Fold these 4 entries.
Entry 1:
Amino acid sequence: MRFGLIWSEVGNGLRRNLSMVVSVVLVTFISLTFVGTAVLLQLQIGQMKTYWYDRAQVAVYLCTPTDNCASGPASDQTVEAVKKQLESPELSPYIQKFYFQDQKQGYEQFKEQFKGNQIADFVTPDMIPQTFWVNLKDPNQSAVLTETLSGSAGVQSVVDQRSYLDQIFSILNAASYTAIGVAALMLVAAVLLIATTIRLSAFSRRREIGIMRLVGASNRFIQTPFIIEGVIAALVGSILASVVIGLGVQFFVRGYLSERIQSINFVGMEQAWLVIPILVVIGVVLAAASANFAIKRYLKV
């Protein structure tokens, strides 16, 4: 009986303040969409760094049969010669560590990194160069390695990976932090709007609240319908944000971007399913806390 009465009060409150409830839904939806976007951007940055940024500072690519190198494809002697140069007294003081990756290892890594990407179907093992991945003690001294090895026989190119990856990650981080900032402001607006909605709802039902107090209803019994109202509005906004995030990843990221930018392995639904519960929890917890605070303050007045 008490349970049915609570839900009856919740329904009355939602109907009486429908416009405010819709506002709460929209603000929660927009703010949590920004939160989800920011989280996915960070996951994307982390995924890219795992494969590119954290592996090497400088890549020494050896010639393959498909390259137009004057010395021809790199041989075992070429690999040994480059290794000796890296271990030489001239270069070893600048190098923290390095490792060699043959064509088979490179091809397997490429297939794993770009699994599900169409570009993986057009790449063969002979197209993947043998590579020395070098970590420098000081990334700013990569020019020493580049100048020393660029003219060596069998070396196709020496590429400083960080020179352009830093710019890409800086842009992505800036976009992610911007989304987080906007999301934080929108979440504050959502919390304030929920609190205002609950107080207006309580004010419009002040006679009912007075009657419930006279018949001995506890504060918890009076507060519960208002808290549920806030939670329902925020839950609807959270679900809408989750749907938009899921559709965006499925159709825009995987269906549009991944087909046009095949050199990047974008986040997929696996990451989206990790983000969606976070959005729902954030929406519900913030709504419950805000509504609980607002109605407690009102009952103390």
Note: The two ends are 29 Å apart (CA to CA).
Entry 2:
Amino acid sequence: MKEMNLEQIEKGVRLILEGIGEDPNREGLLDTPKRVAKMYAEMFHGLNIDPREYFNTVFHEETEELVLVKDIPFYSMCEHHLVPFFGHVHVAYIPRNGKITGLSKLARAVEAVAKRPQLQERITRLVADSIMEKLDPLGVMVVVEAEHMCMTMRGVKKPGSKTVTTVARGCFDTDAEKRKEVLSLIK
């Protein structure tokens, strides 16, 4: 992955300020390009992280029962408009042969995937596929609920509207009862 170039971001922000008719040399805007560059470095730090790396450490516990971490908050940037979207991710999996991961690893994987220019549908898929690939569970289900500023601040202007995406793999894809169990626990 290419290294983030803060100087180039600063130049871009100056161009945007000039493009909207502002004076980037005005007192209140003097440090704005630098602040935005630092903010982007933080907001897009997931570009250089493979979410699967969080599942390299596993534990063994005699269980093949549901594990659900719900209401994991996230913030991301819509790759179409570069405005935020945010909400919660719910991650469920059923371990195979007792192969489990630390609960914080699920949240870290969500964070790594969200911290890049992104689509909600892709976040949902990448988190689920990373877990399936590295943990080989009986099944995984990921549900993402988010509000998109591109629908709130511009365009259709519908604040409060939520988008929900789901991905079901393994037993959650084939067993409607297991899927319903997860959805009822999320509510």
Note: The domain at 57-186 is CATH 3.30.1130.10 (GTP Cyclohydrolase I, domain 2).
Entry 3:
Amino acid sequence: MDRFTGFIGIALILGIAFLVSNNRRKINYRVVLSGLFLQIIIAILVFKVPFVREFFEVIGHGMGQIEHFAFQGASFVYGGLGVDKGDGTIGNYVSGGFVFAFNVTATIILVCALVAVFYHFGIMQRIVSIIARAMNLIMRVSGTEALSNVASAFVGQVEAQVMIRPYLKSMTKSELLASMSGSLACIAGGILVVYVKMGSQAGMDLAPKLITASLMAAPGALVISKIVFPEVEESQTLGQVKLEVKSSYSNVIDAISHGSADGFKIAMNVIAMLIGFIAIIALFDSILLWIGHLYDPALNLSLNYIFSQLFYPFAYAMGVPAVDVKNVATLLGQKLTVNEFVAFLNLTNKSVPIVTEKGLLIVSIAICGFANFSSVGMQIGGIGALVPERRADLAKLGLKALLCGTLASYLSATIAGILM
């Protein structure tokens, strides 16, 4: 029965996207249907064909090595700093421990430097062209939004935008939303490694599912975003990318230097936005707690509580077994209100226990993405640093991207649940 409940979930997710669409008459149903087809094919290949699953595991591991290489640079800079190693002991940062400001931002800097080198040699331009042709054949989407969505399955949400930096200034609003949505729906390969290293055997077992979630989210984000904000403008990269972007660097050393400097600016914007948004969320929780106690001293009202209740219907509609619906809804609320790190940690350490295999599959895919309030600020700050002239558009599209990224993750989770 849970398998068939998933079809209700698909209808609910697509229905919400349709209701909030800004131009229902212009929805391109070819894009929608072809994107759904791609999601289903990816899920079937990964879940039903062993050698395909193993292949994607190797890819995910390779992309995760970027975080390891970035750590080498961060260790040199922050060596000697004492951090929690995760087992209750304090040790040198070089010997282990995860510090967001050091690990994640170091990865951003490394990726920016690598992308600058790739652009200098013309590699990225050719990748854009290849993916544009492939995605145009299947979904009739532009090269820029196709590249950023596919890249988001392996690198971080800001790094994915760096890959299409020369095109950000001229992208249509629909393309911009699709790109932002894909980055919020997917998870970076480096972050996937962090999840696996959180010290839980459950995290190890979930690795193939998380890779699948990020891959399925790429076409899923395009499906949802093109329903919410259909394309009505002319894209410069639809069908074929014009290779007119030339390197502004004098040599490879210059590319690395400028790329690293740009990455540092993006990293600082990310840190500032995260501090601001998480602090505001904490402020709201404090106010809600006070309001709840005025009504009933035993009512510990919070954003986390409110959203866990709101997401109860989603958890049920996605096909989660009845015994797990309440806890899955709680994790969905935690992921949206705080971040995916908190939700995933509570899942793997069983602070919020999920007892069925199907419930574990659905919730792990549903929370595998950057779609939360603080990430909206991260995107506005990170992409805004790349193209300051588009900051107003980014701010207007931020909440729409959050909705699209969330629904895309839920769509992937629902399809996976049906196939299980």
Note: The chain has one domain: 4-419.
Entry 4:
Amino acid sequence: MASKTKVAVFISGRGTNMEALVRSTLAGDCPFEISLVLANKPEAGGLATAQAAGIEALCVDQKPFGKDREAHERAIDAALRSRGIQVIALAGYMRILTPFLVDAWAGRMLNIHPSLLPAYPGLDTHARALAAGEAEAGCTVHLVTAGVDEGPILGQARVPILPGDDEHALALRVLEQEHRLYPETLAAFCLGLG
């Protein structure tokens, strides 16, 4: 069998999408491996989860870099390249990336977003969908480009908005679909690389 694509997962918090990606690698036919989990905050709960799963967990803390986001990303890029990473999967990484990292990993960086893009890019997606009276919500996996949540769409999953839904209830149902969609889409993407 061909070697598996080496993926780094970026997180800023608990990392439930990262956990879903890690679980998917347990299938023998999974075309990728999670080689690194990287966080920008030392308190990110997903770092301990990754370590417990036997995956290298690395924090490149943003604080020492102050407002120099590109310098922070250059440190991240060096860590990725030294480990032979081939693809980045953003999974709740709550930082807007600079053109440096976006360009360096163009076509090899994916993100999952909790809306049916192009609708509701950015934050507060569930509240905005509810306020607009939408009939459905969902999630999107897309390639990362310079614009926030604007890259080419690789996959989507739809979730009906039910009577009485609030942000929390809707977010939980969307998250279930994220945990299914992201591993499937990342696997298809990695198979297409080579």
Note: The domain at 5-113+141-156+182-192 is CATH 3.40.50.170 (Rossmann fold).
